[in-house]
Amino acid sequence: MKLSGQSSDPKTKTHYNNCLSNFGANEGALGEVSETQQLLKSGDYNWVNMCASTIMSDVDDCISGNSLGTPPFQDASELPKYAGVVTQVAQIILILTNFLLN
């Protein structure tokens, strides 16, 4: 939310508000992380795998910031760097769950 408040450009504000939704606890990556924790405890590795994929999709939706037919958003903030770390963690979860499923 801080990034959204730092800009007066409506396109930038919209992008960061969309990212907030993509990372949010209700329908975003944070909600998926919470669900993933519960699924790991229950041993449901197929669903853990699905949740990790959804986390990566949510992050990608934020970072690309493009709607159908529009160019990607050029984000000069630190957000893409930190979002990349979230993606890497989700990739590690995918690798581990694939190993546990075999």
UniProtKB/TrEMBL annotation:
InterPro entries linked: Invertase/methylesterase_inhib (IPR035513), PCW_Enzyme_Inhibitor (IPR052421)
The entry's keywords: Disulfide bond, Signal
Family: Belongs to the PMEI family.
Protein name: Uncharacterized protein LOC101503233
Taxonomic placement: Eukaryota, Viridiplantae, Streptophyta, Embryophyta, Tracheophyta
